């Protein structure tokens, strides 16, 4: 147990952390509650920073080979058309990417438990006790030198030990897949209005990923109540009508590429904006489990990979004394992501304002080059 770490969650953040830990010689267990491949609410795009980080994990060439390059952003902001050039990025399905990353972690020597749920029971001065439960009903307990929570927006089991700094609020996420003959490969399409914003991109298997952050005018309690009652095929209130709201945003925009057919059931998330204390004792959180600000074109996965690598390096560098791991991570993580998160939050706030949308659209439709500094900032290492 002396240098054994549990990573809870096998998505891009958890797998990145596990891969980096193995490269640093740390024994790793990964507990993933779902069977892969699996879909999830995501824009499915990776920008320049994310590709550079994947190169550190020896995954960049695989992603570039199996994904589709993106080099253009075509948006409708309050009905005004804006087109921007992007540094080459990649569109790739989460079914493909997450499965490959978790497989690479296993090949590197990480022990994968899936489908297995994990719960942190107690923080001790020299270890973390956890309970693991397999889908067929088997349960057992383990002790680890440290635990990394990478279970995304649904990391509710850590609230007791890693309390909210900003409770979940704001828009909720929604996504589904469809077929369309009118969407160009290599272009990220977006449309924004009072209901939120929607992004569309063609994936490597020719499906169109349609992902949105939809505004909610109800209280957080109402949203959570509706979320619990909703199903993947629909449900009450705003969550059940997510596809209708996405259709309305696209229909009111001036994009002519929104027509699609054979859509899959809608997946939804709880309210997106949140921030929790990222660490205490030998327990830390990374990726969406630590906090979330709605990104645009791949920053979400990039932040997960970035925090996973940084957390692994901190654990490896602190392996002789992990007792203050959480406190050190609580100082490091905000500094790691602060500038990028502030930039994304500023833009999403402007897009939710009718006046802000008009100002952005009028400016960028005439002078698209003015967006270059922001694009550069979000795509640099």
Folded structure, characterized:
The protein has 381 residues and is an alpha/beta fold. It has one domain: FAD/NAD(P)-binding domain (3-Layer(bba) Sandwich). Helices cover 35% and strands 31% of the residues. The protein has eleven helices and 18 strands. A hairpin with a 2-residue loop joins strand 12 and strand 13. Helix 2 packs parallel to helix 8. The longest helix is centred in the C-terminal third of the chain and has 28 residues.
Name the descriptors:
single chain; 381 residues; alpha/beta; FAD/NAD(P)-binding domain; nine-stranded mixed beta sheet; six-stranded mixed beta sheet; 11 helices; 18 strands; 35% helix; 31% strand
Provide a short characterization of the protein structure:
The protein has helices spanning 12-23, 48-56, 60-66, 94-107, 220-229, 237-240, 242-252, 299-317, 325-352, 354-366, 372-378, and strands spanning 4-8, 27-31, 45-46, 68-77, 80-91, 111-113, 116-124, 127-134, 139-144, 146-149, 164-178, 187-193, 196-202, 208-214, 267-276, 279-280, 283-285, 291-292. By secondary structure, the protein is an alpha/beta fold.
Main sheet characteristics: 9 strands, mixed
CATH level 1 class label: Alpha Beta
CATH topology: FAD/NAD(P)-binding domain
SSE run: EHEEHHEEHEEEEEEEEEHHHEEEEHHHH
| Cα gyration radius (Å) | 20 Å
Task: Please state the average pLDDT score.
Answer: 86
Instruction: Please give the domain count.
Output: 1
Report the end-to-end length measured between terminal Cα atoms: 35 Å
Q: How many helices?
A: 11
Which structural class fits the helix and strand makeup?
alpha/beta
Strand content: 25-35%
* Number of strand segments: 18
Shape category: globular
**If strands are numbered along the chain, what order do they take across the biggest sheet?**
3-5-4-12-13-14-11-15-18
- CATH fourth-tier homologous superfamily: FAD/NAD(P)-binding domain
Query: Level of helix content?
Result: 25-40%
The assigned CATH architecture is: 3-Layer(bba) Sandwich
Segments where pLDDT lies below 50 for 5+ residues? Answer: 226-238
């Amino acid at each position: 147990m002396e240098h054994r770490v549990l990573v809870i969650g096998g998505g891009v953040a958890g797998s990145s952390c596990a891969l980096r830990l193995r490269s640093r010689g740390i024994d790793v267990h990964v507990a993933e509650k779902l069977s892969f491949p699996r879909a999830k609410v995501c824009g499915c795009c990776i920008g320049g920073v994310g590709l550079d980080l994947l190169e550190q994990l020896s995954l960049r060439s695989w992603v570039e080979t199996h994904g589709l390059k993106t080099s253009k952003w075509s948006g409708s902001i309050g009905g005004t058309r804006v087109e921007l050039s992007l540094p080459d990025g990649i569109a790739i399905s989460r079914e493909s990417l997450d499965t490959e990353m978790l497989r690479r972690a296993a090949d590197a020597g990480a022990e994968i438990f899936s489908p297995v749920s994990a719960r942190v029971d107690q923080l001790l001065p020299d270890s973390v006790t956890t309970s693991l439960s397999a889908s067929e009903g088997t349960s057992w307990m383990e002790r680890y030198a440290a635990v990394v929570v990478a279970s995304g927006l649904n990391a509710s089991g850590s609230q007791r030990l890693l309390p909210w700094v900003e409770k979940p609020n704001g828009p909720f996420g929604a996504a589904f897949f469809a077929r369309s003959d009118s969407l160009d490969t290599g272009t990220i399409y977006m449309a924004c209005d009072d209901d939120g914003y929607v992004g569309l991109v063609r994936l490597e298997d020719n499906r169109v990923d349609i992902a949105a952050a939809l505004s909610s005018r109800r209280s957080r309690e109402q949203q959570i109540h509706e979320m619990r009652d909703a199903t993947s095929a629909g449900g009450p209130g705003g969550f059940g009508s997510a596809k209708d709201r996405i259709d309305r945003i696209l229909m009111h925009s001036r994009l002519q590429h929104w027509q699609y057919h054979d859509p899959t059931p809608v997946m939804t998330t709880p309210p997106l904006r949140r921030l929790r204390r990222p660490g205490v004792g030998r327990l830390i959180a990374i990726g969406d489990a630590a906090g979330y600000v709605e990104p645009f074109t791949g920053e979400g996965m990039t932040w997960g990979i970035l925090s996973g690598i940084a957390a692994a390096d901190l654990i490896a560098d602190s392996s002789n004394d992990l007792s203050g791991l959480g406190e050190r991570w609580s100082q490091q993580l905000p500094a790691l992501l602060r500038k990028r998160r502030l930039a994304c939050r500023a833009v999403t706030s402007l897009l939710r304002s009718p006046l802000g949308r008009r100002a952005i659209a009028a400016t960028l439709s005439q002078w698209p080059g003015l967006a270059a500094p922001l694009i550069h900032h979000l795509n640099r290492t």
